[in-house]
Design brief:
The chain is built from 18 helices and 2 strands. It has about 350 residues and is mainly alpha-helical.
């Protein structure tokens, strides 16, 4: 059994862990929000309106908090970590706008997506605007290394989204291909968030590497849990429509494992519903039943636990502070989160 699963406090929920990290970074988050709102100002009314809808939609702010905490645990006292956290949040926000258009999503964080309210063209263009503002923030920190890391992460995220499209509805998708997708589309920004925080704080090389690895492993674990929740979560808690991945034909790990263990009848089911995209209303329930039969979700969560263990192990190489402990608890509780 994974270390993360064993040591995760039964009394602490993921929401409480997020709240604890937010409490530690509250002042910095406030300054970051001010920076973001200033960057979203525009005489074109739709830009601040649409961007504000996204930014104020109640996100956890995990990625910028990772940047702020990484800088804090190395004793940073300057202000450039605020700029980097804002850039990380804007990169994430821009990708969400684009993702919702690509996936034709209608619900995010429990509210209508921007593409539903304003339209696809508007969401894409404002997403481009937010990306440009993120790059302005990167430059303003006057640190070539963080500019290189965050700009590279932006391109890797885009590659991950394209790779996911290439694997969509492809029953030949392997676990290794899937890990490549989530490493790019999710873990790359987690890794960049913690890495840049350590760099801004002038962390020693060994500890800088540990923080980058922590972010990457946490990001993979987080996405694994997210993909499992699409088949086991509750819509009200998730803030998105349960079963979206199935309806879109995404080859996430629960599907990949189920296909690998399928008998002839199940194989025909996956061929019709995923590869051919011919789905009936009852098919999602059938997919969940098949996954239970093969413990596909349980195996997905077990792999998430392995990556969480790796993330936590990396924290042993950095200073032991209240931020370090908050990050450890965050990873541990993320394995049993409901959203």
């Amino acid at each position: 059994m994974s270390l993360a699963l064993v040591t995760s406090s039964e009394k602490t929920t993921f929401a409480q862990a997020v709240a604890s990290l937010r409490a530690l970074t509250r002042d910095d988050l406030g300054r970051m929000d001010q920076e973001i709102m200033m960057r979203m100002d525009s005489p074109v009314a739709m830009i601040p309106d649409l961007a504000g809808h996204l930014i104020n939609a109640g996100g956890k702010r995990l990625r910028p908090m990772l940047t702020l905490s990484a800088a804090r645990l190395f004793g940073y006292r300057g202000g450039h970590h605020i700029l980097m956290a804002a850039a990380v949040e804007l990169i994430h926000g821009a990708t969400l706008l684009h993702d919702d258009v690509v996936d034709a999503s209608r619900l995010r964080r429990g509210t209508k997506t921007a593409n539903v309210i304003w339209g696809n063209k508007e969401s894409v263009l404002v997403g481009d605007y937010i990306f440009s503002r993120a790059f302005e923030l990167m430059v303003s920190a006057e640190n070539l290394r963080v500019l290189k890391i965050l700009s590279h992460a932006s391109s890797v995220i885009a590659e991950g989204e394209v790779l996911q499209l290439a694997t969509q509805k492809n029953l030949q998708t392997t676990r290794e291909m899937y890990i490549d997708v989530i490493n790019a589309k999710t873990a790359a920004l987690f890794a960049a968030a913690t890495h840049t925080g350590a760099i801004i704080a002038s962390a020693p090389q060994r500890e800088e590497v540990a923080m980058e690895a922590f972010g990457r492993d946490f990001g993979i674990a987080y996405q694994l849990v997210d993909d499992a929740l699409d088949y086991t979560g509750f819509e009200g808690k998730l803030g998105k429509t349960v079963g979206d991945d199935f309806r879109e034909g995404k080859m996430t790990l629960p599907v990949i494992l189920s296909v690998a263990s399928a008998d002839a009848e199940e194989r025909q089911f996956w061929q019709r519903t995923i590869a051919d995209g011919q789905q009936a209303d009852e098919d999602f329930a059938v997919a969940c039943e098949i996954m239970v039969r093969h413990d596909a979700v349980g195996k997905t969560l077990a792999l998430a636990g392995q990556y969480a263990d790796k993330a936590i192990a990396n924290l042993s190489s950095v200073p032991a502070t209240e931020d370090t402990e908050a990050l450890r608890t965050l990873v541990q509780t993320s394995l049993s989160r409901a959203n």
